[in-house]
Amino acid sequence: MVAANREMAVYCFDTLVAHYNSDDAPPAAFDEGQHPLFVTWKKVVNGGEPRLRGCIGTLEARYLVNGFRDYALTSALRDRRFPPIQAKELPTLECTVSILTNYETANNYLDWEVGTHGLIIEFTDPNNNVRRSATYLPEVAAHEGWTKEEAIDSLMRKAGYSGHITESLRKSIQVTRYQSTLFTLTYSDYVSYVRATRGAAPAINGVKPGNY
């Protein structure tokens, strides 16, 4: 099984830097394969807790190189919850790459473990008969300190359901649980990696060298 690693996170930073420079990213330095994957960008401000800046991926298997290239940019620039990341924000960023594995159908909405499993929920909105779905990666519920029920309720809101959440509605949810491997890389560690492997720090249009 392919596990998330440093080179995948480096490639996501390379892809974003290349976008700002209107250039091509260096070739990826990791093995190809097909897996579901996510790219998460967070921003660290004044040494505080990293804040989500963009997170998009696919629950379907993708070739890793193309998948990380596409979702590095999509999550940075086209997550509708946030304005596009600007080049000047790069020094404050950290990137987490996730590869999803071990998809299993849960017996019910409580048949999973906080901190171990990510969730995909699917259900029919009783107010308009619309089919709704949403996912959280394995680290989300643990990071937020949620119980299983709180995580499920939050996922239903994420899916677009705005009505009253009843126990019978929770029991009607189809839950797929999964696990993931992940790797997080800060921008400063990315710069150190590039210096060590390529002999010079990355140059970015719109970012002064002294800022990183």
From TrEMBL:
Can you say what this protein is called?
Answer: AMMECR1 domain-containing protein
List the taxonomic lineage. Eukaryota, Viridiplantae, Streptophyta, Embryophyta, Tracheophyta
NCBIfam families per the UniProt record, alphabetical: TIGR00296 family protein (TIGR00296)
In this chain the AMMECR1 domain maps to 1-194
The record's section on InterPro entries has: AMMECR1, AMMECR1_dom_sf, AMMECR1_domain, AMMECR1_N
Q: Which residues form the signal peptide?
A: none
Q: List the Gene3D superfamilies hit by this protein, alphabetically.
A: Hypothetical protein ph0010, domain 1
